[in-house]
Amino acid sequence: MKKIFNFSPGPSMIPREVLLQAQNELINWNNLNFSVMEISHRSKYFINLVEEFENNLRILMNVPKTYKILFCQGGARTQFAAIPMNLLNYNQNADYANIGYWSYKAIEEAKKYCVPNIINTKKIINNIIYIKPINEWLLNNESVYIHYCANETIEGIAINEEPNFKNKIVVADLSSTILTKKIDISRYGIIYASTQKNIGPSGLTIIIIRDDLIIKKNYRKELPSVLNYKIIADNNSMFNTPPTFSLYLSSLVLKWLKRKGGIKYINKINQKKADLLYSTIDNSKIYINNVSIKNRSLTNIIFNINKKNIENIFLKKAENQGLYFLKGHSILGGIRASIYNAMPIEGIQTLVKFMNSFEKLYI
Ligand SMILES: *Cc1c(COP(=O)(O)O)cnc(C)c1O
After folding, report:
1. Which of 20, 122, 158, 168 holds its CA 20 to 30 A away from the CA of 105?
2. Lining residues, ligand 1, CB within 6 Å
């Protein structure tokens, strides 16, 4: 089989050794002679799996005891609605930082439940995109929380500093950076992420929520039970049937990450991968990334080619070298390399080698 490197933005790469293990266990899981998909989510086998998964998540991310972890469905986008519905009374509002595509989608959804105070964070100076430092964001004193997306998966723009808003509740979409670097959970009220970027297949959403934000008696009667954090927490995330196969595969990925050396190890590799790619772009005469150094994404690296009509040739030739799914999002065009935890450094080395030889053909 030809060696393939998969730069898909999501759903994305899963470590091969995890897939091989899943293949091996598909019809005979835990020596039980059935698959993990065919058993009740309330059986002791499956409850053990979920408990171990949660425990590994707590260890890897250093989650304080005062936070609960909830497993939901519907992806990050469902949380765009669930968050205001759970946290806001009818007459309350929230701050929303507008950083890029996903921040904006969260704002559009929040508008159904409140009048969000939209914070425009972006500055463009000499064609370079800067995001205002967090301490310059103008929050509304009355707002209940500040929401932002810490890594804009489509534009490759990130907030790399930790939030520091004193008493304001911070709600962050970490879908594309969860488990890629160390974070201080105590600075957040809610962190949420869909799993299909750094953790496993799609179908599962992880919510890490400070205990006091699980509101006992919800203000909004119309809040669906399946989105109600109190109901989800009271039922150990088993109010309705969870996506059992996603949970299983994600649990294998967390064990893989632990074996490798956890966040500290993977972050070192992630940083190396990103540095290698950004320095190749910055040192080239044809590749351009216009995000300020401080706001560059660790996991989604975007670039354009400053010659007309050759991006499609680049993509085609890349595929011939086994470098797949490098096409940028349709709203932006260009090239995007998504390099989540499962992407080995060899993938970046192969990409960089290809980029250098491609450049030679065009200068
Ligand atoms: C992928 C992504 C989403 C959308 O996730 P769904 O699971 O499709 O709802 C939202 N936010 C960010 C930052 C993402 O990367």
Report:
1. 168
2. 10, 75-77, 102, 149, 153, 173, 175-176, 194, 197
DSSP output for 52-106 = HHHHHHHHHHT--TTEEEEEESSHHHHHHHHHHHHH--TT---EEEE-SHHHHHH
Whole-angstrom Cα distance, residue 45 to residue 194? 24
In degrees and rounded to multiples of 5, residue 174 shows phi and psi of: -110, 25
- The architecture that CATH gives domain 17-259 is 3-Layer(aba) Sandwich (3.40)
Q: How far apart are CA 7 and CA 13, in angstroms?
A: 7
Q: Give the up-direction half-sphere exposure of residue 330: CA atoms within 13 A in the CB hemisphere.
A: 0
Q: Which CATH architecture has domain 262-362?
A: Alpha-Beta Complex (3.90)
User: Is position 137 annotated as part of the catalytic site?
Assistant: no
Q: How many CB atoms lie within 10 A of CB 224?
A: 12
**Does residue 102 carry a catalytic annotation?**
yes
CA-closest candidate to residue 260, choices 318, 345, 336: 345
Closest atom of ligand 1 to 78 CA is: 9
Ligand 1 atom at shortest distance from the alpha carbon of 196: 7
Please tell me the distance from the alpha carbon of residue 192 to that of residue 79, in angstroms, as a whole number: 8
Q: Is 173 a catalytic residue?
A: yes
Catalytically annotated residue among 102, 168, 273, 327: 102
Q: Would you kindly state where each structural domain of the chain is located, as residue ranges?
A: 17-259, 262-362
First to last CA, the chain: 34
d(CA 193, CA 127): 31
Q: What is the pLDDT of residues 76-114, one digit of tens each?
A: 999 999 999 999 999 999 999 999 999 999 999 999 999
pLDDT in the model for residue 48: 97
In the structure encoding, which two tokens stand for residue 101, read together?
A: 């595509």
Q: Cα(51)–Cα(57) distance, rounded to whole angstroms?
A: 10
